[in-house]
Amino acid sequence: MKYIGMNVTEELEYKPGQMYVNRYERPKYIDPITKQILIAPMPSRVVDKCIAGPGMMAHVIISKYLDHLPYYRQLQQFKRMHQVDISKSTFGEWASQYVTVLEPIYNAHKKEILSNGYLQTDESYIEVQSDEVEGKCHKGYMWVSRDPQNNLVLFTYQEGRSGESLINHIHGFKGKLQADGYGAYEKYKDNPDFILFSCWAHARRYFEQALDNDKERSEFIITQIQILYEIEKSAKEHNLTNEDRQKWRHKYAAPVLNTIKEYLDKNAELILPASAIGKAFGYTIKRWDKLVAYTIHGEVEIDNNLVENSIRPLELGRKNYLFAGSHESAQRSAVVYSLLGTCKLHSINPYVWLTDVYQRIKDHPINRIAELLPQNWKNSNDTSSV
User: Fold this and answer.
1) Residue 384: DSSP 8-state
2) Dist CA 122 CA 311 (whole Å)
């Protein structure tokens, strides 16, 4: 037979992840004269006397907070695929201890993001088990801030949604703050520490909701807002600096905004304030100065959508594990969401980062803890530059 070529067929296969035991054997010696017993020290461990290794717990934490797989489902998988049976309480304690280890990194991360000059902020509820009312969950809130300039995200858990909760979330921050129209933000419109910016996506949403009420007026404003977004898209395609983007907006967006304002002023008295279109007009007119302020600050985005995107993992997780076990547990979740969310924004493999951090953190100098932040991190196992 004469060889004339080859047909190649490939198929993608899968083997379930492996679980194995690391065994450390340390011989013991005794000095026959002094009777002193000698034994080699154990390698540093993330959590003393915890039999769960860093790779396993990195997988567990990422499975819950990125893949939205509750702990009890992971336990079912371990038992079904690996014949490893772990009690729910033990498993929960391991996870709690491993997240607590990350708190110094989280505190450094929080300090860094709050020292920057521009944040987008939003909040979303989370049910929390509490002793306050028997049989009911407390409605707490995850407050989220995103720094679009440096690709950082910060979660904190607060028991409420008041203006005080906002200040607790961004305590120490001074600068440009962009948010929706919720009253907690409006309370600080005269605060000299903040320059408030509103969100055109929220304004547009009101007009979309008013289409059935007043199609003509709603469509006119929506069309004008769409032009504003096309101007922003074009600015990004030209890869403009913040200074050039400010000039771009002044040239192209300012005339469109003038058209919108003239239309709002002309029609405001012709519609019912309590109607859907009246609410859309009222929302936009009330916040007009904060809606147009983005045109004179090149680093500020036209809307708050980036921080809303950062909240989505919380909302997806909430559908799966339903509630946090305590206020402390909710704050531990904030720690994980902040750090893993920042990994995502920097295109870092979260499992690689978290495993490496767990292997290093016990011996890492506390005054250099910022080196372990996702945005500053260099993989200790990467030898490509050696």
Assistant:
1) T
2) 8
Q: For 266-277, what is the mean pLDDT?
A: 94
Query: Which runs of E-coded beta strand occur in the chain?
Result: 28-30, 37-39, 118-129, 137-147, 152-158, 175-178, 194-197, 323-324
CB 228 within 8 A of CB 294: no
Interstrand relation of 152-158 and 37-39 (parallel, antiparallel or unpaired)? unpaired
The confidence score (pLDDT) of residue 14 equals 85
**Nearest alpha-carbon partner for 76 in 66, 93, 63, 94:** 63
Assign 58 to helix, strand or coil: helix
- pLDDT tens figures, 34-87: 999 999 998 888 998 899 999 999 999 999 999 999 999 999 999 999 999 999
Q: What is the mean pLDDT of residues 178-203?
A: 87
Spatial distance between the Cα atoms of 164 and 187, rounded to a whole number of angstroms:
10
Using alpha carbons, select from 160, 133, 104, 71 the residue that is nearest to residue 335: 104
- 254: its two tokens: 């300012």
The alpha carbon of residue 353 and the mean position of all alpha carbons in its chain are separated, in whole angstroms, by: 16
**Residues 208-243: pLDDT tens digits?**
999 999 999 999 999 999 999 999 999 999 999 999
Residue 382 is predicted with a pLDDT of 66
Which residue is listed with tokens 């000039």?
247
Other Cβ atoms less than 10 A from the Cβ of 286: the count is 13
Gap between the Cα atoms of 8 and 5, Å rounded: 10
| pTM above threshold 0.85 | yes
